[in-house]
Amino acid sequence: MNPIRQHGRVLTASLVGTAVEFYDFYIYATAAALVIGPLFFPTESEAAQTLLSFMTFGLAFFARPVGAIAFGHFGDRIGRKSTLVASLMLMGGSTFLIAFLPTYAMIGWVAPALLCCLRFGQGFGLGGEWGGASLLAVENAPKGWEARFGSAPQLGAPLGFLCANGLFLLLGKGLSDADFAAWGWRVPFLASALLVGLGLWVRLKIGETPAFKEALEKAEPPKVPVGLLFRNHLGAVLAGIAGVVACFAIFYLATTFALSFATTRLGYAKQEFLGLQLGANSFLALGILVAGYWADKASARLVLGTGAALTIIVGMMFGTGLGAASPWVVFATLASALFVMGLAYGPLGAWLPTLYPVEVRYTGISVAFNMGGIIGGALAPFAAAWLAGMGGTAYVGLFLTLAGAMTLAGVQFSPRQAG
């Protein structure tokens, strides 16, 4: 096949998969901020509904490392392509079924129990998605283009966010609050089937990566990749986990927490704040593009370290900026945070694979990415809500500052090259 055409298919397959990932996760994050609490939990306490809603959001993050180990096992033993197809089907199927769930008013506590099962399925499937998509891109990249190819899966984040946020914005404009709560929130979950179908169609048309084929020719794949990983590369795993915390923390504070806080505490209309976030999302895409190009010219390690250092600075201003009276200040706060996220997120596809040898690489980057997601993603909205309650919006950014420091430490103490 023509190399240009093959590279186009690889980049599309990587991009679409992570676009589905972020679309799926963000439609749930948005629903969690707006309707999941009242629909799926008792009505005695609004604060309890919000916290329980965010707990269901966080549940999928705890399922992701389990999925990372399971899908990483097969990705390192039988190949990247087949594993990616399976992860996308599980992830997409779980998301699609959420559209058909009955509410607490219909069947009581069975409703949140079913919701938690599907959230676990979502997270389990996602556990193998990002790592495989990144390897698909990086291990097929021409020499000197690894970071730019590796940034393709990351561009799925703003694309998925754009689709999810835009659809919720359209629904908010076209439906009353009552209709949105009654059935409108289900539409984005139904629509996920279209993206999943596109992702499967593209992935079934690509082949295995050259790096995996070469590794198979040299030696049998490890029988238990995760055992070999933790036995020989524990330091790299810990560094990788720390290295991804900052990007998750920024994303879910600037999206999930910010939307919930702005519409419940700051007096913003849902559509107004979704519009602000939609505009700020373009700065995330810009940051990823800058990071990919810069990392190929310098190094992924340098760019990620810079993104981590800037995250520390953003954390010092984030809470005050989010609580500002001017929507323009709020927009500038979100835009700058998401641009910095791009610098911390864009290099990951090129940086993480350098920490692990090919025979445990799928497992290694998947475990690191998803364990870091628990710290930076699952805890972010919950911790920010607690900090805001303790000391107001000024305290919210403390979580970002700590996340940036953790990622900076992970970069500084990471091995230079695993081979």
TrEMBL record:
Q: Which domain of life is it from?
A: Bacteria
Q: Which Gene3D superfamilies match?
A: MFS general substrate transporter like domains (1.20.1250.20)
Is Transmembrane among the key words of this record? yes
Q: How does it sit in the membrane?
A: Multi-pass membrane protein
Q: Which PROSITE patterns match?
A: MFS (PS50850)
InterPro entries, from UniProt?
Answer: MFS_dom (IPR020846), MFS_sugar_transport-like (IPR005828), MFS_trans_sf (IPR036259)
Q: What GO molecular function terms would the record report?
A: transmembrane transporter activity
- Keywords in UniProt for this one? Cell membrane, Membrane, Transmembrane, Transmembrane helix, Transport
Localization per record:
Cell membrane
**Where do the TM regions start and end?**
21-41, 47-71, 83-101, 183-204, 233-254, 274-295, 302-322, 328-352, 364-388, 394-413
Q: Which GO terms describe its cellular component?
A: plasma membrane
Instruction: List each copy of the Major facilitator superfamily (MFS) profile domain by range.
Output: 10-419
The protein here is known as General substrate transporter
